[in-house]
Amino acid sequence: MRVLVVSDGDAIAATVETALHDRPDVQVTTGRPHALRRLLDEGDPTVVVLAATTARAVAALAGIVGMLRVPPVVLLVEEPAAAWTAMARRAGVRAVLGLDAGPDQISAAVAAATAGLLTLHPDALRARVASSRSVPVEEDRALTVRQHEILEMMAGGLSNRVIAARLGISAYTVKFHVAAILDKLGAATRTEAVTLGVRNGLISL
Questions:
Q1: I need a labelling partner for 45 at 20 to 30 A (CA). Which of 53, 67, 113, 182 fits?
Q2: Which helix (H) or strand (E) holds 27?
Q3: Spatial distance between the Cα atoms of 195 and 158, rounded to a whole number of angstroms
Q4: What is the pLDDT of residues 91-125, one digit of tens each?
Q5: Residue 119, beta-bridge partner list
Q6: In Å, what is the CA distance from 18 to each residue of 71, 102, 121, 153?
Q7: Cα 168 from chain centroid?
Q8: CA 146 to CA 102: how far, in whole Å?
């Protein structure tokens, strides 16, 4: 496993390396947030750990939105609730922790991200729940986790081909999910589905 640690300083890089030092299969490289896109192009990491101020993290993530292949990102910031956005998810963020996260938490988040799971700081989770609390959704019409993820990518203007490459699934499977999303939201087009998703608090732009 190739872990790219992108941070504002050396202290957090050392913390991450400490978290992963017991795994002989892990190779850690480091870099700075402003060089994230170049580091992804050159290194092809398995997972990225991005630790920075919220503003620098957001700027770094904005620079990689739209890349054909983005590895899962573990984000460490001082404001987890502010960092868990639709743009961050489109940039590959699969975990949001506080900057004070310990080695065990970081190690667990890296393992979960590479397994395709989400890890959220309680503040980020509470913010997400609060944003959708007032939106009643019939259980049989609710989007699955994968459909929700694809709807967010649709909101980012990604084509079925790019979504398929990003998620590691076939374009046919993406087409199936898009059709299900349109059906569940009662939308006739992708644009209408995105509009309804925003209106119902399912996604944010």
A1: 53
A2: strand 27-31
A3: 15
A4: 889 999 988 888 888 889 999 998 888 888 887 76
A5: 95
A6: 21, 10, 21, 34
A7: 15
A8: 29
